[in-house]
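Async update (no meeting this week)

Hi team, since we skipped the sync, here's where things stand on the single-chain job. The sequence we agreed to prioritize is pasted below, unchanged from the tracker. I ran it this morning and attached the output directly underneath so nobody has to dig for it. Comments welcome in thread, and please keep replies under the output.
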Amino acid sequence: MTTKSTPSEYLVLCRGQWDKTASQDQMAKVIDQFYIWLDRLVDEGKMKHGQRLKYEGKTVGRRNVVTDGPFSESKEVIGGYWFVVANSLDEAADIAAGNPCLDYGLVLEIRPIDPDPATVDNTNM
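Output:
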């Protein structure tokens, strides 16, 4: 008997900066292509919508030190997130690899979502 694995959710973080050599028309076209791609995958049950993130933000660290900006370097800016529903991290990466924005300077980080609460035993220390 073969057991089929239950799909898991994977967080996709979109980071980086848009290619500065791309024209506004090219950017508008690829953004439209992105939403067509995303909506198709959402309809197929392979992705879930996320949100764009604004550039502004705050970072709170040890001893409640608050600094402007959610980033340490501008190249690390996270511009948005969404979710992939897949049977493995490799499958999630394959799905994310179809994002048309990748040809325009953006990079995607795919992370498995751990449904378990944090404990001393499952947290990297």
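Quick observations from my side:
Helices lie at 24-43, 89-96.
The CA atoms of residues 30 and 36 lie 10 Å apart.
Reply here if anything looks off.
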